[in-house]
Amino acid sequence: MSRYGQIGFRDGQHILLKATQSGHAGGVYITDVNGSTPKLVSPETTHLEGVVPDEHSLIVLHNGAWVIQSAEENSTKPNAGMQPGEFPIAWASDARHVFTRAVSATGLSIYKVDLDLGRRELRQVIEPKDQVGLRPMVSPMDITPDGRWIAFAYSTQLGQLYRSDTLK
Q1: What pLDDT score was predicted for residue 122?
Q2: Are 94 and 127 in the same domain?
Q3: Does one domain contain both 60 and 4?
Q4: Phi, psi dihedrals of residue 117, rounded to the nearest 5°
Q5: 140: burial class by Cβ within 10 Å (0-12, 13-18, 19+)?
Q6: How many CB atoms sit inside 10 A of residue 30's CB?
Q7: pTM summary value
Q8: Which domain holds residue 117?
Q9: pLDDT reading at 62 higher than 60
Q10: In this structure, are 8 and 63 located in the same domain?
Q11: Fewer CB near the last or first residue (10 Å), C or N of the chain?
Q12: Which of 51-55, 83-87, 109-113, 154-158 has the lowest mean pLDDT?
């Protein structure tokens, strides 16, 4: 099995792997820390974000849409609140909401999304004052469960252009 991403459960006993097996398509597998045979829970998922706080389901990007995937069986339910192009950051303290980020050309927006009802609340717009050379804000970030504190980074890229009138 070739592993290319993993996330641990809060119970400390189970691990999710985004991996491929010889002769099989890639997908999300669940195993335990004792080395049990990994079980496929979601085939061909393009992005695995994490374990829902109930530890019985996952949030995954499947066929271009965010869905809640059962960790026990291959079944999904729609996630009405998250929009295409958004990515989850962290779970809110009530475990019913997730904080998401939507990257724009000038920064990013942070939303608090109710996964059951699909309601969205804009929490913060982050736009660095100096936009010169700003690169898309896709680096890892985190937010506290109460949404009060956000840790993020951004980078810029600047270059120099030279002109020569003496080239032949």
Answers
A1: 92
A2: yes
A3: yes
A4: -95, -15
A5: exposed
A6: 19
A7: 0.69
A8: 80-149
A9: yes
A10: yes
A11: C
A12: 51-55
